[in-house]
Design goal:
- This protein is mostly helical.
- It has helices at 45-48, 59-64, 85-100, 132-155, 161-177, and strands spanning 115-118, 128-131.
- The chain has a two-stranded antiparallel ribbon.
- The chain is elongated, with a radius of gyration of 37 Å.
């Protein structure tokens, strides 16, 4: 037995249901299924061939017959921005650079293609060669992380002013120690600046 088939099985109509009422999807036993409705131009094959079952009415609507309030969607709306992925990445880098104090730095032209050679004093041991562009990239990353640390210290709510000044002095001391590598920067303002006495 197929049982109740169609709208009445979905309990869309409020009781009582008359004995003479017929279901919109009633099909006599052994009868072929109805043909699918014709598709519109450009409509996918799988979307228009199946008849959608009527939506189940909410409990207040079945009891009172009044339409239920529509549910509000909690999904965020999309923002239509005419921007390709490369332009989006460029803008994102600029925003992060401004917020975190992280920016690009160029190495001086005379150092391009150079090497940093670490030659040990002990005879018979191999020396270490590091490309200058790799070493310069590590120096820039260290500079950027120190800038972020400096901003975090200044904005920290759990530190007193005296503690901020004390920790800031350590950061400034790190800047002063690293001024030796300012010779690698194409622009002097991109490098490190210490307190003066700590600068090499």
């Amino acid at each position: 037995m197929r049982g109740r088939v169609g709208d009445c099985a979905l309990e869309v109509y409020p009781p009582p249901i008359k004995a003479t009422a017929t279901c919109a999807r009633y099909r006599p036993k052994g009868a072929p299924p109805p043909p699918p409705p014709p598709r519109a131009a450009g409509q996918p094959r799988g979307s228009g061939g199946r008849a959608r079952a009527p939506e189940r009415a909410s409990l207040p609507e079945r009891r009172t017959g009044a339409p239920a309030a529509p549910l509000r969607s909690t999904l965020p709306r999309e923002i239509d921005i005419d921007m390709d992925i490369d332009e989006f990445r460029r803008v994102l880098r600029e925003v992060l650079s401004e917020e975190l104090g992280v920016g690009r730095a160029e190495m001086g032209g005379r150092w391009e293609g150079g090497e940093l050679v670490l030659r040990p004093g002990k005879e018979g041991t191999a020396e270490k060669r590091i490309p200058l562009d790799v070493f310069f990239h590590k120096i820039v990353m260290l500079r950027d992380k120190l800038r972020v640390l400096e901003q975090k210290l200044n904005a920290h709510e759990g530190l007193s002013d005296a503690e901020k000044v004390q920790l800031q002095a350590y950061v400034t001391g790190c800047y002063g120690t690293l001024t030796t590598f300012n010779v690698l920067f194409a622009r002097r303002e991109d490098g490190f600046s210490g307190s003066g006495k700590d600068s090499d």
